Task: structure prediction
Amino acid sequence: MTATLVLIRHGQSVWNAQNRFTGWVDVPLADKGWQEAEAAGRELAEMKFDAAYTSHLQRAICTLQMVLRFNTASSTPIFLPADGTVPQESYVPGDNELPVHIHCTELAERHYGDLQGLNKDEVLAEHGAEQFKIWRRGFDTPPPNGESLKDTCDRVVPYFQAEIEPLLKADKSVLIAAHGNSLRALTKYLEVISDEDIVKVEIPTGTPIIYRLSQQGGSWKVEQKDVINV
Result:
């Protein structure tokens, strides 16, 4: 059995374009981000999905909506807010509908704490290259009042294991639209990347990453990985 998992980082946001630390600040997509999301949607138009997931941040939700807008192979999407996030109806998607889980805070970007909203070049100039690298790319050292990548892994991976892995084990095809660091956390888990090597991994905006996965013991084996440049 080979499962299909598609990861896509949201398209470029307004603060990405301005080179600012974003984290949990709910900024919109930039024009380029909408274009990236549309291009990704066209590339994935003929891929059938059985479920989709995204965070509570609009840049990821809008990217997912745009991708599904162009999808002709999947069922009608039904958006399902996570429990406890917003008022919702008691509606269970039917067999001919695609459950789209939104407001999943576990899949959100790394919280950058006091750095959120600051220009990265200015932070680099003020604090120096070494401290900047530790805050931005270090694995287990968080910025002031923020999360490290390790902290992000500690919320993303258990959620993935509990909510998404059962679908993959049942041979379902899953789409996740999320963020650079939450997807780095999943990449680390799926590809068994060390704490030292994950700091070198970059997830580009608006670029679908297609995994074909098989079960090997209690872990996943990557049978194939395709990065679709749009």
